[in-house]
Specification:
single chain, alpha/beta, 3-stranded antiparallel sheet, 13 helices, 14 strands, about 20% strand
């Protein structure tokens, strides 16, 4: 049987989020998507065009291979092999990478997930659905027909661990497990954990890198039974804390399997985790490290973040690291869906507090540390709703318009200090 050929002259665009895996006690099982995205465009060409692989980058390639070893391309080839599809003579891959390499933010899993997702999307193309997706006024994306469960299974198999891949494929928080008795292609399973809207993840990203292989090499082959039992209880509590009880995040993020064993590999990151936890913050190592993830949560009935808590967290960061290179303002909630005349004032206040005031508070405390580093970057998460409006979503749209306004103001104000400010 001849393998099916892919069409030529077509392209797909894939956006994939960063992730924080090994979340607290959820080693190799619980992952959380972050609001930092890599974006790829894959175009297929025939022999009459330029054959072979061509890779281009917008911005810094961060040293990734520019040949067939590139994880996105290699993952596409593996996916096409599983699907019984013959690649085209030429592939053009354009990359816009924001996720930092070697920082415990799932850069490899994001690339693999993007490659597998792009391969499945391209393999599912027909002339009819491609033309329909390109038509003026089209609202359906080609990716809506992609089998995400199959993408997740292969991405997790290639990456080696399901927690990073599942968060990148599905978004949000996920819990994953492997059924080794199931047929190949359906062994990895993931389900979403609904994340409480009051939870605000903050990632502290150091300049130093730590390869995942190095971090895993120091893990012990065995752990004491009583520590495994304690870790199991904490992992169960983490699911509850993420979904409905953010006040329990501090005890729910305590773990016994991987952080302490790798303390010497993390530099000063574990000391920062220790100090933040001593102050009541649910801080953990993000993925394989050395970045630190803080699962902050808003306080009070309006969901308003306490300025004192934010200031204390950045003060501690300054004591440990002295400076800051990147701030990602990732916290956000959807807010209510209702006509403006029916919008509850409490829901309005909560949405503005989380989506807008939180961005201000974190940036206000981060700027002195960015200046101490001689410059850096602030990335604010906005939305198309902050440019075009969003009917029935007044608080959300207003907050995102505000984020864009802050971004443009700070870009002018902080540019002379060599601090870039962008919104995505």
């Amino acid at each position: 049987m001849q393998p099916r050929r892919l069409p030529t002259g077509v392209a797909v665009r894939v956006r994939v989020p960063a992730s924080s895996a090994n979340l607290g006690p959820g080693f190799d099982s619980i992952g959380l998507a972050l609001g930092v995205w890599d974006e790829y465009v894959v175009a297929l060409t025939g022999a009459d065009a330029a054959p072979g692989l061509r890779i281009g980058f917008a911005g810094n390639s961060q040293g990734v291979p520019l040949d067939e070893r590139h994880l996105v391309y290699a993952s596409m080839r593996r996916a096409w092999a599983r699907l019984g599809v013959q690649p085209t003579a030429g592939v053009v891959l354009h990359c816009a990478n924001i996720i930092r390499q070697g920082r415990g933010m799932g850069s490899s899993a994001a690339a693999i997930s993007a490659g597998v997702g792009a391969a499945y999307a391209l393999a599912g193309l027909t002339d009819e659905n491609y033309d329909a997706a390109q038509a003026p006024g089209a609202t359906a994306a080609i990716g809506e027909s992609v089998d995400l469960a199959a993408v997740n299974d292969l991405a997790a198999t290639l990456e080696g661990h399901p927690d990073n891949a599942s968060a990148s494929v599905y978004g949000g928080a996920t819990i994953s497990w492997v059924d080794e008795t199931a047929p190949e292609g359906s062994q990895v399973h993931s389900v979403a954990i609904p994340v409480h809207p009051a939870i605000e993840p903050l990632v502290l990203v150091p300049e130093v890198q730590l390869p995942t292989a190095t971090a895993r090499a120091v893990l012990p082959a065995q752990v004491p039974h009583h520590e495994a039992a304690l870790n199991s209880a904490s992992a169960g509590l983490l699911v509850l804390a993420l979904s409905s009880r953010p006040d329990l995040l501090l005890p729910a993020t305590r773990e016994w399997l991987h952080q302490e064993q790798r303390r010497s590999s993390f530099g000063g990151a574990m000391e920062l985790v220790d100090d933040l936890r001593a102050q009541g913050h649910a801080a953990v190592i993000s993925g394989a490290g050395p970045s630190v993830l803080v699962l902050a949560h808003t306080q009070g009935p309006t969901g308003r973040a306490e300025p004192e808590q934010v200031a204390a967290m950045f003060e501690e960061l300054g004591k440990r690291w002295g400076a800051l290179d990147v701030l990602v303002n990732n916290a956000g909630i959807a807010g209510p869906t209702s006509p403006v005349e029916d919008t509850d004032i409490a829901a309005w206040n909560q949405t503005i507090a989380v989506n807008l005031t939180g961005v201000f508070l974190c940036t206000r405390s981060a700027v002195p540390l960015l200046k101490a580093a001689g410059g850096g970057s602030i990335v604010n998460l906005s939305s198309a709703a902050g440019r075009l409006g969003f009917p029935l979503r007044t608080p959300y749209s207003a907050s995102k318009f505000g984020v864009i306004g802050l971004t443009e103001t700070w870009a002018m104000e902080l540019g002379p200090a060599n601090i870039r400010v962008n919104a995505i």
